[in-house]
Amino acid sequence: MSRTPLHPTREQIELPMVLDCLSDPIRLAIVYQLAQQERVSSELCCGDFNGLAGKSNLAYHFAKLRECGLMQTRVAGTNRFMRLRREDLDARFPGLLDAVIKSASKDAERLQLMAECEVVEAG
Amino acid sequence: MSRTPLHPTREQIELPMVLDCLSDPIRLAIVYQLAQQERVSSELCCGDFNGLAGKSNLAYHFAKLRECGLMQTRVAGTNRFMRLRREDLDARFPGLLDAVIKSASKDAERLQLMAECEVVEAG
After folding, report:
1. Closest Cβ–Cβ partner in A17, A24, A96 for B103
2. Which of A37, A79, A38 is nearest to A62 (CA)?
3. CATH of domain A10-122
4. How far apart are CA B43 and CA B46, in angstroms?
5. Measured distance CA(A9)–CA(A67) in Å, rounded
6. Do B98 and A94 touch (CB under 8 A)?
7. A52-82 residue pLDDT tens
8. Is ipTM over 0.85?
């Protein structure tokens, strides 16, 4: 049996909450890594972010990202799979997500976006 | 004699601080109004924002906007003139400011961006 955590509808996604959520470097790194992964697979699992922070700290950030509408969480058994809500975000705020990701990418080293990231090491 | 308050250099402008600064609805409204005004004149004076919040509240938000690099403040006598640091922001984070302003514009009513704004009533 799987529980689906609460997500805001597309219309409920609010700009100030999205910007506030993205202003945290760890959440920015999570979003950045999800965006990097979009080319390969749209979902990542919680363990893929272990290099960014401790488990409970990550759980907190995942919840914030879900609650503001940036991320969709799918629960399957004991696993959680995350993906960006790109369609919803692009519909609500055209160009915003891409501009933030591009800006983050420019400062990737300074922001330590890929610090100890395990995403690309899988397999 | 005029004092110039401290501003970060272009290179010191940090993405998380900019996003955090923009996540406040009053600061978002200030930035939005400065952007609307860019076509006519690049500067606005503190009194132009009186409809958004009280004087000391506004002073706090102006300082936050200056400190994160979004806004340039020029002191002339007892007046303060504000403008967006568009060139610096576009150089550091291409497309970000425009995407935020466009997103804010879509939700202008919901965000009360122009609520009791006195900017257009001048003269």
Report:
1. A96
2. A79
3. 1.10.10.10
4. 10
5. 10
6. no
7. 999 999 999 999 999 999 999 999 988 899 9
8. yes
